[in-house]
């Protein structure tokens, strides 16, 4: 076995290098993983381009990557449910397990969360990586490693749809047809939504959404949010029961509120500017609930089942593939987000 651990390390803004680091040793309740597939997320690109997301600042070199699947190479002494050779999806955030949030099951809100590629924690875009064994989920033989890696964004969608209370027969508005909007589309459909309309400013992303099962699309133009909401109502036959906002754009969050029926729910997945202007009285007097989401908790097993049973097909999301050595090229492709680019996937071993 090689002793080298080629890793994609972000040193500072626009300075992403491939360097060898030592292969880590698994602690008692950890596994050593031979990394297989790692998807590039918007946040990885954001750290590369800006060096920070909000209060999370890259102050020392950090390995990127958190949408990942790998093969167990070695298990720590305390690990009983996994063995060498098991193929696993890696839930990238490990919480403290003892605080009130963790005990209450909302571990995504844990203040001690160690999340891959969120400073100061290293990610897993590397050849070898150790992780808490109970945050690794064994994949059935018929699932690919790429599908395992895509359980990460899919878990965001599962959490968003759960927080929204998506259920059978509902009309859903999804704002933004990037990777996250698209996995929300797939998940809402799997959870029984009868009709989904999805918006974007990019025609090509809406084309992809149609092929993934969107019933209606709305190319968002210069129109104001209230006019757009009328267009949503015309297409759906009424305003939406639930709206899942996945762009973070102010105009889109305004549409999310105006486009939701009275008594409905808006879930804010997209994270844009910290403070924006929204029609808050309109939401208040129509009892439209506005709920945020932060990543996910207890969603990986569900995401895995959705894919394993064929309820959701995430494979069409992958549009580009690169090797670990080609990481910078892969990031340039993800950053350009040219027409037709959805998910860029990296193979850690050729
Ligand atoms: P993305 O940038 O690839 O997709 C955003 C999409 O929104 C793009 O297709 C873009 O064309 C579209 N868009 C931009 N302005 C719009 C507008 N006014 N109306 C409609 N669509 C518009 O990003 P992504 O990877 O799909 O992630 C989406 C958002 O979700 C990001 O803001 C990201 O930070 C956020 N996110 C949040 C969480 C969380 O835990 N809350 C987790 C993952 C991602
Ligand atoms: Zn905790």
UniProtKB/TrEMBL annotation:
Domain Enoyl reductase (ER): 11-346
Biological processes, Gene Ontology terms: sorbitol catabolic process
GO molecular function annotation: L-iditol 2-dehydrogenase (NAD+) activity; zinc ion binding
Presence of keyword Oxidoreductase: yes
Needed cofactors: Zn(2+)
Membrane among keywords: no
A Pfam family assignment: ADH_N
InterPro entries: ADH-like_C (IPR013149), ADH-like_N (IPR013154), ADH_Zn_CS (IPR002328), ER (IPR020843), GroES-like_sf (IPR011032), NAD(P)-bd_dom_sf (IPR036291), SDH-like (IPR045306)
Family under the similarity heading: Belongs to the zinc-containing alcohol dehydrogenase family.
Name of the protein described by the UniProt record: Sorbitol dehydrogenase
């Amino acid at each position: 076995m090689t002793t080298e651990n080629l890793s994609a390390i972000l040193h500072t803004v626009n300075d992403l290098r491939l360097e060898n680091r030592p292969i880590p040793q698994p602690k008692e309740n950890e596994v050593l993983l031979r990394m297989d597939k790692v998807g590039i997320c918007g946040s990885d690109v954001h750290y590369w381009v800006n060096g920070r997301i909000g209060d999370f600042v890259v102050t020392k070199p950090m390995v990127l990557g958190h949408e990942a699947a790998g093969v167990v190479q070695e298990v720590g002494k305390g690990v009983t449910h996994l063995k060498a050779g098991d193929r696993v999806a890696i839930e990238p955030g490990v919480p403290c397990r003892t605080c009130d949030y963790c005990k209450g099951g909302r571990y995504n809100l844990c203040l001690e969360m160690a999340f891959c590629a969120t400073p100061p924690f290293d990610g897993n875009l590397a050849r070898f990586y150790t992780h808490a064994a109970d945050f690794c989920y064994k994949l059935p033989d018929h699932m690919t490693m790429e599908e395992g890696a895509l359980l990460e964004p899919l878990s965001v969608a599962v959490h968003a749809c759960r927080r929204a209370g998506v259920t059978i027969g509902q009309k859903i508005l999804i704002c933004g047809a990037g990777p996250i909007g698209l996995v929300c589309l797939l998940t809402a459909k799997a959870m029984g939504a009868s009709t989904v309309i999805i918006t974007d400013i990019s025609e090509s992303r809406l084309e992809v959404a149609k092929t993934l099962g969107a019933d209606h699309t709305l190319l968002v133009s210069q129109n104001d949010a209230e006019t757009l909401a009328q267009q949503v109502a015309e297409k759906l036959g009424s305003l939406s029961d639930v709206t899942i906002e996945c762009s973070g754009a102010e105009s889109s969050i305004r549409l999310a509120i105006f486009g939701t029926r009275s008594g409905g729910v808006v879930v804010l997945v997209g994270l844009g500017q910290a403070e924006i202007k929204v029609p808050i009285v309109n939401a208040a007097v129509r009892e439209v609930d506005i709920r945020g989401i932060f990543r996910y908790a207890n969603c990986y097993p569900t995401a895995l089942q959705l894919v394993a049973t064929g309820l959701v097909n995430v494979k069409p999301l992958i549009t580009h593939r690169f090797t670990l050595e080609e990481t910078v090229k892969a990031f340039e492709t993800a950053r350009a987000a040219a027409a037709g680019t959805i998910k860029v996937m990296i193979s850690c071993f050729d």
